[in-house]
């Protein structure tokens, strides 16, 4: 039996679109998975036969009984996703979907005729973000076994800071959906991300914002260092697609900050808030307006404690602990069923 894992080949981006998939692929290779390289392309005008031929070329070495982890979505479109898993199941492979996003949960436009819940049920098991996502998918008709990831790993070998804990706020992410930062009126914050037009003008003019612009991953690692508190707050509204999705997903920026040994501030209604608070990795707040009172009243010893915890979990994220754990549990579930351990 060969272990396979899909590896997306695409141009590097300034956001986290490819970062988490690249890390999963690299971690899989560390534990014996072979890569199936999938190139990002526009197949809108490709015939079904051509799509099948493309998939057969990618998976020529996959045999019956092999164990295949498919990173979903590939962003090559629903037809590619569907025909890929259908052909692998026809070939007799065991297929696990490593779910990076559920398009219907985040309000994305889903192609006509594509039933995403039915698609997920084609797999032998799913690796999903967290127990909250598993529950909502189950409630909406997904019946296959689901393994919670809990955190995306964040591979890197940059040195962790050993400086004294800092109260400096840091944000790195998609400013198109976090444009509330243009009107930031709380304690000063350092902001990384792409912005243009009026958003750029407002960010650069705001005295409370130290706007550093968009950087590629290695540059961003060096610029952020590991001092401060990471803000895991996409939108400053309780409504809308992004706010709804935060109730189900684990944002990659959470792992990015923690991978730098930085504690975080996260909305208390976010799915990942339970993990953050249970492991004392930061603070879950009901409003951005709570940040200034929190940091003003926070004892140095309490800040030191959450910073130490963040630096400890960074060591796990940097070696792929959560991905390796999920891959092992997925294989155990598919091959042997739930393991019963006597007390």
TrEMBL record:
Occurrences of domain Glucosyltransferase 3-like N-terminal (ranges): 3-148
InterPro entries per UniProt: Gtf3_C, Gtf3_N
Keyword field contains ATP-binding: no
A Pfam family the protein falls into: Gtf3_N
Sorted UniProt keywords: Transferase
Record-annotated Glucosyltransferase 3-like C-terminal domain positions: 169-329
Domain of life assignment: Bacteria
Protein name (database record): Beta-1,6-galactofuranosyltransferase
Organism of this sequence: Schleiferilactobacillus harbinensis
């Amino acid at each position: 039996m060969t272990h396979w894992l899909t590896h997306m080949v695409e141009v590097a981006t300034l956001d986290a679109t490819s970062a988490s998939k690249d890390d999963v692929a690299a971690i899989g290779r560390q534990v014996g998975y072979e890569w199936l390289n999938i190139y990002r392309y526009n197949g809108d005008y490709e015939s079904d036969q051509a799509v099948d031929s493309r998939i057969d070329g990618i998976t020529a070495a996959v045999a019956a009984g092999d164990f295949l982890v498919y990173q979903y979505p590939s962003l090559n479109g629903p037809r590619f996703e569907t025909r890929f898993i259908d052909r692998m199941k026809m070939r007799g492979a065991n297929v696990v979907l490593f779910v990076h996003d559920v398009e219907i949960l985040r309000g994305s436009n889903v192609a006509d005729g594509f039933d995403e819940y039915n698609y997920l049920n084609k797999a032998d098991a799913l690796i999903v973000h967290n127990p909250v996502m598993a529950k909502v998918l189950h409630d909406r008709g997904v019946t296959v076994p689901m393994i919670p990831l809990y955190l995306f790993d964040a591979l890197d070998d940059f040195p962790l800071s050993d400086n004294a804990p800092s109260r400096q706020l840091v944000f790195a992410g998609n400013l198109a959906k976090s444009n509330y930062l243009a009107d930031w009126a709380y304690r000063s914050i350092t902001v990384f991300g792409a912005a243009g037009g009026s958003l750029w003008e407002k960010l650069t003019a705001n005295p409370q914002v130290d706007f550093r612009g968009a950087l590629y991953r290695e540059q961003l690692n060096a610029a952020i260092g590991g001092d401060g508190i990471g803000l895991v707050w996409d939108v400053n509204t309780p409504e809308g697609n992004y706010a709804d999705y935060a109730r189900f997903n684990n944002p990659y920026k959470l792992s990015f900050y923690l991978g730098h040994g930085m504690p975080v501030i996260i909305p208390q209604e976010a799915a990942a808030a339970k993990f953050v608070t249970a492991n004392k990795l930061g603070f879950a707040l009901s409003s951005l307006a709570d940040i200034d009172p929190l940091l003003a009243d926070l004892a140095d010893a309490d800040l030191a404690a959450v910073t130490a915890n963040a630096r400890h979990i960074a060591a796990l994220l940097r070696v792929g602990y959560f991905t390796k754990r999920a891959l092992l549990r997925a294989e155990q579930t598919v091959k042997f069923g739930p393991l019963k351990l006597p007390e």
